Amino acid sequence: MTARWTLKYGLAAVLVAIVVIGIVLYTNPTSLTPSQSSATTSFLVMLTDPPIVPTGTTMLNLTYTDVSLHLAYSNGTDVWLPINASGTVNLLSLVNFSQTIASTTVPNGTTVEGVEFDIASVEAEVNGTLYPVTTLSSTLVMSIANSQVNQTLSGVLVDFNPTLVQIQATDSNGNLVDYYVLVPSATALVVTSLSREQIKVGTIVELGQNDREKLVRVVEEFSNNLTIVSASLSVNGNVTSLSVTLMNNGNVTFRILGLTLNGVFNATRTWDGEYRLGQLIRGVIVERIHPDTIPFKVNGSSLIPTFGIGNEGTESSPLTLEPGQNATLSYSGVIALQPDTGPAIVVTPMGGYNYTLRLVGEGLQTFSVTATS
Questions:
Q1: Please, what is the Cα angle at 365 between 360 and 368, to 5 degrees?
Q2: Taking the model in full, what pTM does it have?
Q3: 355 with 231: CB under 8 angstroms?
């Protein structure tokens, strides 16, 4: 009797368990995710970096956090997969080398559509002095080319191509002060033929010729697909007006973080009152400097000048362009650099001069525009 009752209740428990599982799957069919039901493979996030820096730069340290991959599973679902990874990279050590910054596993057959990480802080050593660096964007999100995972070991190689912009001004005592802004651009692609040693975060290896050629092709493809259609630049007194129209001719989404305007600028600071050296008791003193780059953040369709001081917390939001979309970014106002002490420095383009626009985000797009006055 005891054995029969034990068998009876045992079968009943199994039936109840089957019913419960059936209810869960019916109400939440994605409970068994592809990552739980498929064979997985190791997948790495690697960074390579040909930076553009001022003469005398010996270190460019970037601290990153919150690495994530955008995965598209074979069942049609997609998700952002966070990876518990953070660290600091000396970008100057990655010219023609790659460094593993994160490692995880993904299901075989998964498409890795994007990669994202946050820039927590940047510092640069220039001519023996350590400087804090303002970043034009604190988050990088990149689409990935050739992104289906079918290998036992593969990863995404992020070609991080930042420019360290140096901006010089004078303080209230007439001393020269340097400010620095990091202007990032990046592309990414899936790479194979990796070694097992590269799974360890922090591993640095030399880039092979094949991967270098792939990076060049991806940069060219992205640059051709996202284009600057037209631009205008004018100055009226101290007011600068800039308008840039973009077009996405590709089949992936592009994100624009900002842009830089490069050329010869006029910059003036006006001092009222007593001259510091005692040569002028009352009057106006004009100091002139000539920066060669003005970085702009993007906030929706607006451009915001960024000099690295006084506007670190300025609100910004990358512009997202879907395939076939176009958009116009614009700015109109007085561009001013506000040092820690003393009056602001007003910066303006010079009428009749040529300037180069460079987009900040995915790819490497440039455009030439002549300033009018």
A1: 110
A2: 0.75
A3: no
Token readout for 182 is 């990091």
Tokens of 152: 């036992």
**Measured distance CA(162)–CA(170) in Å, rounded:** 26
Assess contact for 360 and 182: CB atoms under 8 A.
no
**Where residue 307 falls among pLDDT bands split at 50, 70, 90?**
confident
In angstroms, the CA 103 to CA 156 distance is: 10
> At residue 355, what are phi and psi to the nearest 5 degrees?
-130, 150
DSSP states of 224-276 as a string? HHEEEEEEEEEEETTEEEEEEEEEE-SSS-EEEEEEEEES-EEEEEEEESS-T
pLDDT at 339: 64
Handedness of CA 51, 52, 57, 60 (dihedral sign): negative
- Express each pLDDT in 312-370 by its tens digit: 455 677 888 899 999 999 999 998 876 665 667 788 999 999 999 988 877 678 899 99
Summarised one tens digit per residue, pLDDT across range 211-256 is: 888 888 887 777 778 889 999 999 999 999 999 999 998 888 888 8
Local structure of residue 93 (DSSP, 8 states): G
Greater model confidence, 108 or 32 = 108
The continuous run of DSSP H or E covering 184 comes out as: none
Helix or strand (DSSP H, E) at 143: strand 139-145
Is residue 347 a contact partner of residue 263, using CB atoms and an 8 Å limit? Answer: no
Instruction: For residue 194, give both structure tokens.
Output: 């990796």
Contact between residue 254 and residue 363 where contact means Cβ atoms under 8 Å apart: yes
The Cα–Cα gap between 160 and 48 comes to: 6
